[in-house]
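Let us work through a complete example step by step.
Step 1: write down the sequence.
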Amino acid sequence: MYFDEFIPILIYMRLFIKSLLIFSALILNSYSADISSNISKKISDYVSEIVPGDGYTETSIDLRENHKPDFSILAVRELEKNDNGNFFTQFSLFNTEKNNRERIVGNLGFGKRTLSDDKLMMTGFNGFLDLDDAGNTRASLGLEARNAVLEFNSNYYLGIADAEDEKVLDGYDLRLASQIPYLHWADAFVNSYAWQGEDRDDIKGTKLGSEMYLSPTFSLEVAFDDKDKAGLEDEWYAKLQFVYPPRDGATAQDGISDTMWREEKDMSGQLLTKVKRQNKIMIEFKGTSSITRAD
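Step 2: predict the structure and record it as tokens.
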């Protein structure tokens, strides 16, 4: 019983060691880092031409155990800006695997973000509509709060329409992230989620991971997805993310800082960053024992 309570801690320690190994490799091979930076910049420049307009644009490759890679493109564009915040839209398109078949999923959302009087804290709310090429549709409502060191996100998902012999599951997720001490370019996060089963038990799980900014245009997310459901395997995943325009702030090439935490900063520069949410639609297949990936 007591050992089970320490399993998440051991998993996170393993993840943190892997992150440090990646960091060490980057420091020991600065030439390779320069090549990676140049490649990511070219990819980001190309993506900015595909999705025009000022704002955040991201392409990503999601690599998971026992699954084919998922590819996505995501953009955030400002609709209106004022002295203490903005109104924005976020949209994305990607492929994913459902019951061993490829699908295309699209997301469209709108949100409002507000800065505190001293601009050191950003809060916001958002609403999204998700749909796939099979006819499944889902909506969500989300809340977020962020400063220079901490970030919190919560999302509630509600199924609207189901494809034939499928059921879109309702659910929620809660995500808390913090900068890793002395590594101003890396965050550690815990993401708890639950999906309400219709013909089967609910699906619950926790992701423990880290997001690392390796260059101004390239970041890496690595995590362990611990699924509390028979028939769904726990798995590691890695997500490669190329962004445009280049982000400000520390990267892995800056190494270990002399100060434990990032300094408080004006959060105006974060108004057009992406909303952290589950863009994939969770589905239960009727008449079978199959459940889609809980990711």
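Step 3: interpret the result. Residues 2-28 form the longest helix (27 residues).
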